[in-house]
Structure to design on (81 residues):
């Protein structure tokens, strides 16, 4: 799951930077994903992570959109186990 999530977050690229620029944020999103099951809460956390790191605001709708995809990966992996 971890690699899938990291890859998806890096591919998301909301600020149009080089993918390597998101390694720290991807790890933070992964940590948050392990603790949160609500897409809105995860979206808000993602928004805060990126805003803190890059001092740029990402619309909450974009963050919630990726949060649904990340939660789908999380729940898919849970159902396999």
């Amino acid at each position: 799951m971890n690699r899938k999530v990291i890859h998806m977050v890096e591919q998301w690229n909301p600020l149009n930077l080089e993918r390597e620029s998101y390694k720290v944020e991807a790890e933070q999103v992964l940590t948050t994903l392990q603790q949160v099951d609500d897409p809105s809460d995860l979206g808000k956390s993602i928004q805060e992570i990126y805003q803190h790191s890059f001092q740029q605001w990402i619309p909450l709708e974009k963050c919630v959109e990726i949060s649904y995809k990340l939660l789908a990966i999380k729940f898919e992996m849970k159902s396999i186990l």
Summary: The radius of gyration is 12 Å. Residues 2-80 form a domain with the Endonuclease III; domain 1 fold (CATH 1.10.340.20). The chain has a mean pLDDT of 91. The CA atoms of residues 47 and 59 lie 8 Å apart.
